[in-house]
C-alpha cells in the first residue's frame, strides 16, 4: 500500500528543502524523492504552481553550456512553510494518537 501525499504536504516538503539552499529542478526532485514517492513529471507542475503563488522564485545559471533553472524560496514561501509545519504537527499528533504505538493492555 502506498499512502498518497497531499499537495499541501508536497508543497511543504519542497519549501523545506529550499529553506536553506537553492536547488535546480533535477536535484530538487531527487531530494524530494529521498523522502516521498513522487515522479519527476509531478514535480514540475508543483514548482510552477509554487512560483505562480509567489512562494518560489527562479533564476538561471550557466552550467556546461546550458542553463540550469534554480528555485529559491521567497519570504511568502517561508511564511507558508511555517503554516504547513504547524498544520502538519497537529495532523501528525492526531494520526499518532490513533495509529501510534500499540496500546498496552490495561
UniProtKB/TrEMBL annotation:
Annotated Pfam families: PadR
Superkingdom of the source species: Bacteria
Transmembrane domains' residue ranges: none
InterPro entries recorded: Metal_resp_DNA-bind_regulator (IPR052509), Tscrpt_reg_PadR_N (IPR005149), WH-like_DNA-bd_sf (IPR036388), WH_DNA-bd_sf (IPR036390)
Domain Transcription regulator PadR N-terminal: 14-82
Record PANTHER family: PADR-FAMILY TRANSCRIPTIONAL REGULATOR, TRANSCRIPTIONAL REGULATOR RV3488
Name of this chain's protein: Transcription regulator PadR N-terminal domain-containing protein
Organism: Secundilactobacillus malefermentans
Amino acid at each position: 500500500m502506498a499512502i498518497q501525499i497531499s499537495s499541501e504536504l508536497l508543497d511543504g516538503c519542497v519549501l523545506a528543502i529550499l529553506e536553506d539552499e537553492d536547488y535546480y529542478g533535477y536535484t530538487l526532485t531527487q531530494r524530494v524523492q529521498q523522502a516521498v514517492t513522487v515522479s519527476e513529471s509531478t514535480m514540475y507542475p508543483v514548482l510552477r504552481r509554487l512560483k505562480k503563488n509567489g512562494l518560489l522564485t527562479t533564476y538561471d545559471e550557466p552550467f556546461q553550456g546550458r542553463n540550469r533553472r534554480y528555485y529559491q524560496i521567497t519570504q511568502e514561501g517561508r511564511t507558508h512553510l511555517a503554516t504547513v509545519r504547524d498544520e502538519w504537527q497537529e495532523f501528525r499528533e492526531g494520526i499518532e494518537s490513533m495509529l501510534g504505538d500499540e496500546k498496552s493492555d490495561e
